[in-house]
Amino acid sequence: MTDHVRTFPAVSPDPGVTRQVLADAPELMVVSFRFEKDAKGALHNHPHVQSTYVESGRFRFTLSGEDFEVGPGDSFVIPSGAEHGCVCLEPGQLVDCFTPRRDDFL
User: Fold this and answer.
1) Residues forming beta bridges with residue 54, ordered by sequence position
2) What is the pLDDT, as a whole number, of residue 21?
3) Mean pLDDT of the 77-90 span
4) Cα dihedral 87/88/92/97 (nearest 10)
5) 53 alpha-carbon distance from chain centroid
6) How many CB atoms lie within 10 A of CB 67?
7) Average pLDDT, the chain
8) Residue 3: which pLDDT band, with cuts at 50, 70 and 90?
């Protein structure tokens, strides 16, 4: 089974943010994002459907022009093409799943 396990490097796409791919297949990708307080995930969009699970911390998200706060245990889906981003209010970790895989993260 270990021949199916890949290790991906952690990268810093933005100040105070660390991203690490946890698993991938052409149809699905799981990614961990760690945020320091006040770090931002800039507003952006992509063709992938994304689900976000808040492992820890507190975040203010903007999704299609609406703001909301989330904390540990919360989860939500971001539709394909929807503009979204976040600000970290308390240091924490998000676990995102993308379908299909985000080849730009490889």
Assistant:
1) 94
2) 98
3) 98
4) -10
5) 8
6) 10
7) 96
8) low
Q: Which residues partner with 90 through β-bridges?
A: 58
For the chain, the DSSP string reads -GGG------EEEETTEEEEEEEEETTEEEEEEEE-TT-EEEEE--SSEEEEEEEEEEEEEEETTEEEEE-TT-EEEE-TT--EEEEEEEEEEEEEEEES--GGG-
Give me the count of residues in the chain: 106
Domains annotated for the chain, with CATH where assigned, are 10-105 (2.60.120.10)
pLDDT digits (tens, 9 = 90+) for 26-69: 999 999 999 999 999 999 999 999 999 999 999 999 999 999 99
Are 72 and 54 within 8 A, CB to CB? Answer: yes
